[in-house]
């Protein structure tokens, strides 16, 4: 398997395979049923971000080589490389329709890339859309489920919403008490969850950007967040070695 630490994992949408990215520069595909390795892809540097498209066709990877790479999820062949960042790519997310991928980087920018032209993947259909506004490293990005907005979390403590079609910042800036390293959007489009250095999980109204509830319980940084499919719960993973499942609306 991998020879260095695993930085990111993702399920393919059918749930039959898991993709893992490692500091050893490899991306590996594993069959969930028996743990058998079914494919290997190789980047030019450490891999810290992987994502799978909802249509099951594409895998996106990024990391130390500052490049976003799209792979065929079936053949594991490299389809296209997207160059534009000037530092590590830290986070990746596909739009719900799989037509775009958003990348967040330590270079303080967020870029929305076109991944398809019509039915065929053909690289960039237009120049990448670069979103400027953060003043430090961007560690986490997510699309809202309608695909119209991108959420980004940054080491400057801010969480920003951007209109995906033109990069315009939308609404007020949400602010955490420390570095923000994890963001997630609920499938019903109502909530944004954020976490990071302040050891708190915060739920925000995705429309008004008002703070809804803060969840305190971790004793170290919150590093990862995900909503349940029904949006009623959010799960947080922390460097305190614990995982906590919370009620989205009450914080219990």
UniProtKB/TrEMBL annotation:
InterPro entries recorded: Quinoprotein_ADH-like_sf, WD40/YVTN_repeat-like_dom_sf, WD40_PAC1, WD40_repeat_CS, WD40_rpt
Domain of life (superkingdom): Eukaryota
Alphabetical keyword list: Repeat, WD repeat
WD repeat segments: 1-40, 40-81, 82-123, 131-172, 173-214, 215-252
Database matches in PROSITE patterns: WD_REPEATS_1 (PS00678), WD_REPEATS_2 (PS50082), WD_REPEATS_REGION (PS50294)
Protein name, UniProt field: WD40 repeat-like protein
Organism of derivation: Paxillus involutus ATCC 200175
